[in-house]
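Recap from last week: sequence in, structure out.
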Amino acid sequence: MVIFSALIFLNFIIAEVSNSYANINAEIDALIYKERASLIQESEDLMYESTKQNDKVKFPKYIIIRELEE
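Predicted structure tokens:
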């Protein structure tokens, strides 16, 4: 009975770990884009305001938003 209970418990643990991995794997692209955006914001915060105002190529007055079709 103890061995049977241990097998059921280990099966439950493996199922939960697999479920967590599947959830993270599904959200990985969004997490990567979010982390990249935070790194870009951090690097832009370190720049001088005069650089941001004078460099029209890197800091345009408009934003282009593209959506991916799946």
